[in-house]
Amino acid sequence: MTLTGSTRTIAAVAPAAARRRTGSRSLERSNVSDADLSRRSTRIVFRVLLAVAIGLLVVISAGPLLWLAKSAVSTTQDILTQPFALWPSGIQWHNLTDAWNQIQIGRFTANSLILTTGEVVVAVFASVTLGYVLAVLRPKYGPVLNAAIMATLFIPGVISLIPLYLTVIDLGLLDSYWAVWLPNGVSAFNVLIMKQYFETIPRELFEAARVDGAGPVRILWSIVLPMARPIIGVVALLAFVASWKDFLWPLLALPTPGKQPLSVGLSTVAPQADLAVLMAGMFIAVIIPITVFIAFQKQFLSGAGSAGAVKG
Q: I need a surface site. Which of 7, 100, 119, 157 has the fewest CB within 10 A?
């Protein structure tokens, strides 16, 4: 079974129409008008304030990372005696190799990649299927399920630790990757943003596909998923970052050191490791998610903007 030409035409035109609706919104008015900027004194003050604001943002956001990068190639003595020096007295590149070999950063990194990959797959699958059910299929119990999912956003995660831990033990999943993949992969926030994105897709597409004889699975595969690539990228990136930095639950669910991720492994080796080598290990742990975000920032920002669009 194939979809007719009319359905393909609607599917091809819908994303462009959605972009036009989003782009046609009136621009927000600035606090500084063009008439104010025409005065030289106002322009100078405005540019100075803008430069100061940007400088503060750069220092606040990039400052800790730059300090960590400097400490990663410094000696322990320099870190302790000159913590705020702008440049190390001597660059110690061997700190990075020592961190990889001595405190087994390579093994912890491999574990983190395994956990992160599994959580991303579970997060995308759960958010797509649940979002599709709530936004497209719309069963009778949909509002109740939607309210239950939203309610979980207001429950502190620490409250569910003990019940979740006991459930993992009862299912025999303790000290397995599934103990981390399943609880962390299913996120109410990801489900809701996926549902919101699916609701912006014109329902005429689904009606035309049903007329052509397409079932729910075919509609999901042929129409929804191709149009949802931007938001799927957003969910995948959010799941990646959340999994990479998670500490408490992997510490409880993976007691075996050979299965622990970077976040847990660094804390276990910290008391015995040299400070400079530990800083190098922390730099390796931080630079990986930053690199992933920089590589996919265009897809993330476009998907995040699409998630905030409202069907006109």
A: 157
Which residues in 115-172 belong to E strands, given as ranges?
A: none
Spell out the residues 6+ positions from residue 176 whose beta carbon is closer than 8 angstroms to its own: none
Q: Taking residues 282-304, what's their average pLDDT?
A: 80
Residue 224 contacts residue 132 (beta carbons within 8 Å) = yes
Per-residue pLDDT tens digits for 50-59: 899 998 988 8
> Do the domain assignments include residue 114?
yes
In this prediction, residues 115-141 reach a mean pLDDT of 93
Provide the pLDDT confidence category of residue 90 given band limits of 50, 70 and 90. Answer: confident
Report the alpha-carbon distance of residue 250 to residue 258 in Å, rounded: 12
253 lies in some domain: yes
- Answer whether residue 293 is part of any domain: yes
The total of structural domains in the chain comes to 1
What residue type is assigned to position 223 of the chain?
Answer: I
pLDDT for 167 beyond 90: yes
Query: Is 30 in a helix, a strand, or coil?
Result: coil
Structural domain contains residue 38: no
Q: Please give the mean pLDDT across all residues of the chain.
A: 83
Structure tokens at 287: 């630079």
Q: Which tens digits make up the pLDDT trace of 59-74?
A: 888 888 888 999 999 9
* Rg from Cα positions in the chain: 25
In the predicted model, what is the mean pLDDT of residues 268-273?
A: 86
Between the CA of residue 5 and those of 14, 16, 26, 66, what are the distances in Å?
14, 18, 34, 55
Q: Check: CB of residue 108 under 8 Å from CB of residue 262.
A: yes
Count of all residues that appear for the chain in the document: 312
CATH of the domain at 125: 1.10.3720.10
Chain CA centroid to CA 202, Å: 27
